[in-house]
Q: What sequence folds into this?
């Protein structure tokens, strides 16, 4: 059975499709970065440190450090939970007669 499309035409179409996919992927990256910047600009207020005394700057640093610790603990807990779930699923799959 003969193909209705030549090999060179197939190759041309494939390269066009790949180029289009690459363009869309690059645009998606740009869009995600813009969305991230927009989200962060809405959620995070700019830090104003001019005119603060040394003790006020130290207090601000302590406050920021406490917030970072809280976020790190939450992130660690989430990672630990997702890791435990993943190990449990792997263990269950290895235990089952169909899972290999």
A:
């Amino acid at each position: 059975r003969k193909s209705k499309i030549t090999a060179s035409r197939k190759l041309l179409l494939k390269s066009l499709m790949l180029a289009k996919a690459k363009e869309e992927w690059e645009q998606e990256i740009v869009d995600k970065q813009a969305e991230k910047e927009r989200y962060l600009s809405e959620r995070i207020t700019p830090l104003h440190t001019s005119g603060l005394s040394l003790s006020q700057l130290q207090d601000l640093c302590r406050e920021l450090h406490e917030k970072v610790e809280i976020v790190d603990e939450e992130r660690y807990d989430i990672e630990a939970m997702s890791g435990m779930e993943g190990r449990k699923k792997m263990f269950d799959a290895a235990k089952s007669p169909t899972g290999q």
Q: What stands out?
A: The two ends are 41 Å apart (CA to CA). The mean pLDDT is 87. Helices lie at 7-43, 54-95. DSSP finds two helices and no strands in the chain.
